[in-house]
User: What shape does this take?
Amino acid sequence: MLADVETRSVSPVFVGRAGELTALTEALAAATAGEPQALLVGGEAGVGKTRLVEEFVGAARASGAVVAVGGCVEIGADGLPFAPFSTALRALRRTLPDELAAAAAGQEHELARLLPELGDVGQHEASQEDSTARLFELTVRLLERLTAERTVVLVLEDLHWADASTRHLLSYLFRTLHRGRIVVVATYRADDIHRRHPLRPLLAELDRLRTVRRLELARFTRTEVHRQLTGILAAEPDPATVEAIWTRSDGNAFFVEELITTHACGCELSESLREVLLVRVETLPETAQRVARIVAEGGSTVEYALLAAVARLPEDDLIDALRAAVGANILLAAPEGDGYRFRHSLVREAVSDDLLPGERSRLNRRYAEALEADPSLVRADERATRLATYWYHAHDAVKALPAVLRASVETRKRYAYAEQLQLLERAMELWDEVPDEVRATLRPADYAEAYPTCGCDPETTPLRHLDLLAEAAVAARLGGERERALKIGKMALRILEEENDPLRSAWFWTERSRLLSGLARGDGWAEIATAQDLVRGLPPSAVHAFVLAIAAGWGMVRTPGPDSLAAAERAVEYARLVGDKPIELNAQLTRGSLLVAAGDVESGLAEMREVLDRTVAAGQMTEAMRAYVNLSSCLEGVGRSRESVELCEAGIALAGVHGLRDSEGWIRANLAESHAVLGEWDAARENAEWVLRASYSNKPRGAAALRLAQLAVLRGDVAAAREQLALARELFGRKDPMVQYTLPVAETELLLTAAEGRIDEARAVLADAEGDTVHTGMHRYVWPLLLGAATVEADALGLPAAAGGRAAALDRITALVRRVAAPSPIWQAYSLHVSAELARAEKRDDIARWTEVVAAYEPLDVPYPAARARYRLADALLAEGGRRDEAAALLREAHDAAVRLGARPLREELELLAGRARLSLTDPVPAGPEPDDDAFGLTPREQDVLTLVAAGRTNRQIAEELFISPKTASVHVSNILAKLGVSGRGEAAAMAHRLRLLESA
Assistant: This one.
């Protein structure tokens, strides 16, 4: 076998790298114990990364681990998407065929995008924003299942050549792989990572992950070079030779090997390392040199059959040439055993750089012609991309353009949108070089999303440059290159200024709206309005329906009302007329949400359930996930929290099956809200933390941070609430405010500010948010804000610092209450609660009001507001006197809820009230007569002093009014603060009013 030919240039002794090898073996031990490991091995070209990994792989295999190796392919910007992962998974399939089949069961069609041997790829939905993320999640799960009971070492080599899709998948793998007995080792050339190298941001990102360890290989010391030469020569080297090679190689292990080979053959040491690398090639027979040049231009690995077709040599001559190249340790048989590659990429680069320009073009043409003549020469998943590459480097635009377009379609089917974009940009580069008559024969593979076909038959309609721009814009957006998508769209709109094509113009304006919103550079409405103007009055079309659906969706989350509902109605109608089911379902779901917001709850929910059922049945998972998110939100919005939880759990299960991690994040954010409302605060916290940890879209992460902030406020942890609220604001951004986020943020800020004693600032929060309260259907966010504001005013009653601006604040709350709808029992209860708090703030507190509030909450599963209502009713009963048993039962029920929830501030208020009234919160015995004295032990004189403190008097003013010395007044104030357990005069005044301590004074 050619692969077994012995060579003399490689040392049989492994030199140095003891620390790095120890780190790798320790990682293997940790992985075997069940803790996944990730390592990056970097170093300059030739420094010994491959040798280190080979040594580790040998030890791993000896310990019983399964090893799979995949390398990135160096064929320029149009590299094969996911190449190292495909190669590694193929190796795992050969080693563990049954186990891999079991791990991939049920998702073969999706995983076939990485490993075509699993079957045909599933149906591609061009509009699936989360398709790539789904593929990544399924890949992680495949590896987790495969490594549940066995240790696997996954080696990914040469990341400096990695395509964008490979980099994104690797990043996802390192961030989300939390289970399994697996070690992932990735290598890269450190000296290739210049400031603008695409791998650089990934390395910076991975450096921030505590789960990833980075190993940087240094050059050999003089001692290590001496040991390496001793191993190569199998004898002690001459000191002068060691010194010369050490100086010339500068400790680079590969250069040491090449230099000693050059020295051994009697050649002088060249000043050019490139010449050193070519020395052994130039000593080969001419036919072997020719074969080496062919292999150098064919890619990282060249299949034997393809090489034979390009070399055009008699088979015996080709075998002899290959044997000579392998024997000289220049070429190696590929691990798969069906091709050849250079032993080191530095030699391949040197041979390739030595080709003449015409020679390079001629070789690429030969490769392309051979592949066109017999497509079976390479694997099917590589065929289109490699053919496009060969024709492009052959400088044959007529042949290259259609090949590049076909390759772009194949990469899109694999969700490799970054590579699709690169190929489409290459097509645009070639466009003007191709004659008109050739371009006229090209046809669109299909049209990007709702991009208009102009009513023409795609089979007979020529491809236009605008079609390329549209496909490129979508590929850029789906690949995360939103800036690039914006530039492409701007280019297209400039072209359309000279053409009368309103449908295509409207489509590009709508795309621009989505991009600007996604980049947080605005809300995108101006662009949507422009698109609507362009399609107004035109016959129904997919573009028209698409524009209306986008407009309705925009309004649903920002300004729900008649205009948005009308847009959704027309979008559904137009989509049905033109037979566009995806747009129809999207618009129908939006219409259902808007109907719920408008008060037609049952019709809206029924329509949304219909969309959910249809999309799940049709396997349209993107729209199905949107249905789970919107429907659960609407259920929560009408007070059906338990139904929302059940729906969310079903959605999470389905998202898990299909690997839709980000969609799961949106659903879990809704689930956290419903759990919080139901009083299941620990479950709410767990789901919110999951979203922050695992989701990657900012909006659900912002909602999760906001939920944690709200829980922290209710549990009395002001510092944690501040931290989470700041994070929520950061994640929501400032350019595109949405009422569903701005009002809950305002509510949380108001409660936090009040808890910090800054009442005037709390009032300012409400004033700033007032403009967001006018939108139809936003009552679910307005009522909690108003309840918080009214409660703050009631609790601040009697505080001198809160007196200024109090009347205006109450007037503002009262005015808002009059114009906010309360269409569901939950919001009717909130309305009564707000009115009762306003009455308390105005000293009109009475038992009847609070009895009505408690009764309104009784059939609802909302423990926290119900507990607060019982607290206030008990307080009112105690103030009136004579119904102590009833008050005690209410206090016990509210206290039990506060303890179970962990609502410390509410619990403390209940305990204070119970203590003042001499009521037991644990023993349900008759309450007994009302105490004659104050429960806090305040003397009559201290009650007089407290009355004056609450009125805002200073110690000197108290002394003058009570005819005592200022020092005595100060002593009384200190005693009062100690007895009440407060830290300041303001807190004492607030507690005095809240617990009615002054009413008998």
